[in-house]
């Protein structure tokens, strides 16, 4: 067996210290899952139906969210017959969707459930090579699609991703967490593990979302055999480029996600409470199809309570470990941030070493380059980085990231709304174009009643402000403080 370019320990060090996306090469050549083509998977699944998401091929300035797609149940054999255009073959439910007009995507398919009748297949995905012993296909999802199949731009609320491209090519558009204010985040449609962007990154409506022109795009085409590392909280839009694509995704949670779970539990409680409340204008499809269903308010409150308690237990354990470590060897206690979480467990010398970590870029590890700002993605002549075996690009220099805190003049939800609108001539207001809709509503309602503008605020408008990250962080901290007081610690 040929020696891999990195040991599992080296890979884990890279993905846990490097903060930007990168592509690993020559790490999966001996994986049995390298043979998981759509044809091979069709044989393995036999006549087992799979749910496909169907979207129309069209150029539109608004994202096509999963709530707006159609869905069909079909076998992979019918899917392959549909994509091959072979006369006489049964295409099942795909017969209603001409391939020239539609794309199909079997996405988010949990391998543990899909192949529960063939558990031996789990071992064919060897994530232990990436420094996570025992992790295999059972902790992965499968994605099978046609050319044009895509995932709306979003960020994952927990952990980071390792994506193994098996068949065909996919183009990834990635944006740093520092560009969050430029991506116009929204929680509708709601999915616990995802925050969506209101922008179609390929056809952005810059009149409506002007700040997107400042977003710094990183673009790469992932080739078969390559593994993409998507760091924590990096935005990504993914599109399939070939007639058939197959990829395997493993999502890896981090220890610091304990506090994030409190925020997500709080967000879910607020979203479900408001969006399930009957009202005139509250009939949109707000729940993403990937969610199992809507929990009751009592269930959500219980989930929130459990998340807070788990976070408090983790903090208590860490504080006890700090105290014991300091007493045993005289080392200083771990530094903590304003929320009580660990900032680092390094000495000053080790802190400098960690901050100066330089990944071993070369033929086997390639950085995903910065190709330009959001406006550049509208250019049809844009050449993304194609990481073939004889191409080794280097990252273009990136300017200092723009903060999205109100102190730095970035995204602050609703603070200083008027000033930013005047400065940006109608730019991002953090509340979903609230002012424009209010003005339009006032005009449509006619004269004011008793001097009060008849502005129309939607439930989603309210949610955009209530579940803004700054608000959720503050309330989460208040909940944790309250739990600490109640427990007497």
From TrEMBL:
It is found in: Cytoplasm. Residues 103-267 form the JmjC domain. Coiled coil: none annotated. The keyword Cytoplasm applies. Signal peptide: none annotated. It comes from the Eukaryota. This is JmjC domain-containing protein. It comes from Coilia grayii. The lineage of its organism: Eukaryota, Metazoa, Chordata, Craniata, Vertebrata.
């Amino acid at each position: 067996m040929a020696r891999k370019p990195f040991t599992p320990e080296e890979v884990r060090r890279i993905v846990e210290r490097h903060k930007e996306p990168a592509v690993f090469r020559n790490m999966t050549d001996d994986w049995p899952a390298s043979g998981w083509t759509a044809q091979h998977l069709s044989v393995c699944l036999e006549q087992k139906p799979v749910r496909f998401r169907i979207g129309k091929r069209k150029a539109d300035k608004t994202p096509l969210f999963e709530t707006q797609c159609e869905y069909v149940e079909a076998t992979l054999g019918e899917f392959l017959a549909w994509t091959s255009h072979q006369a006489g073959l049964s295409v099942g439910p795909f017969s209603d969707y001409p391939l020239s007009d539609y794309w199909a995507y079997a996405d988010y398919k949990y391998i543990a459930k899909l192949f529960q009748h063939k558990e031996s297949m789990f071992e064919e995905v060897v994530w232990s090579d990436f420094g996570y012993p025992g992790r295999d296909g059972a902790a992965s999802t499968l994605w099978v699609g046609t050319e044009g199949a895509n995932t709306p731009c979003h960020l994952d609320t927990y952990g980071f991703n390792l994506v193994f491209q098996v068949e065909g090519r996919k183009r990834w558009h990635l944006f740093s967490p520092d560009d969050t204010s430029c991506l116009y985040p929204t929680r509708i449609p709601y999915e616990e593990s995802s925050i969506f962007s209101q922008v179609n990154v390929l056809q952005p409506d810059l009149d409506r979302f002007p700040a997107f022109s400042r977003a710094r795009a990183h673009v790469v085409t992932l080739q078969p055999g390559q593994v993409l590392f998507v760091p924590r909280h990096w935005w990504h839009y993914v599109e399939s480029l070939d007639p058939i694509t197959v990829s395997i995704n493993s999502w890896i949670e981090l220890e610091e996600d304990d506090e994030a779970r409190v925020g997500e539990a709080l967000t879910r409680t607020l979203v479900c409470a408001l969006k399930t409340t009957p009202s005139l204008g509250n009939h949109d499809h707000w729940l993403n199809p990937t969610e199992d269903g809507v929990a009751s308010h009592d269930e959500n409150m219980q989930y929130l309570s459990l998340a807070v308690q788990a976070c408090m237990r983790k903090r208590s354990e860490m504080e006890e470990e700090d105290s014991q470590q300091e007493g045993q060897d005289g080392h200083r206690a771990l530094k903590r941030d304003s929320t009580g979480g660990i900032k680092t467990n390094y000495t000053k010398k080790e802190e400098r070493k960690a901050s100066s970590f330089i990944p071993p870029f070369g033929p086997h590890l390639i950085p995903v380059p910065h190709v330009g700002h959001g406006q550049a993605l509208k250019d049809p002549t844009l050449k993304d980085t194609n990481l073939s075996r004889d191409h080794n690009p280097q990252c273009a220099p990136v300017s200092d990231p723009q903060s999205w805190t109100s102190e730095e003049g970035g995204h602050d939800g609703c603070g200083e709304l008027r000033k930013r609108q005047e400065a940006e001539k109608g730019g991002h207001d953090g509340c979903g174009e609230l002012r424009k809709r209010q003005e339009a509503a006032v005009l449509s309602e006619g004269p004011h009643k008793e001097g009060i503008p008849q502005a129309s605020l939607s439930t989603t408008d309210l949610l955009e402000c209530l579940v803004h990250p700054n608000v959720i962080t503050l309330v989460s901290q208040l909940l944790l403080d309250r739990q600490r007081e109640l427990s007497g610690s």
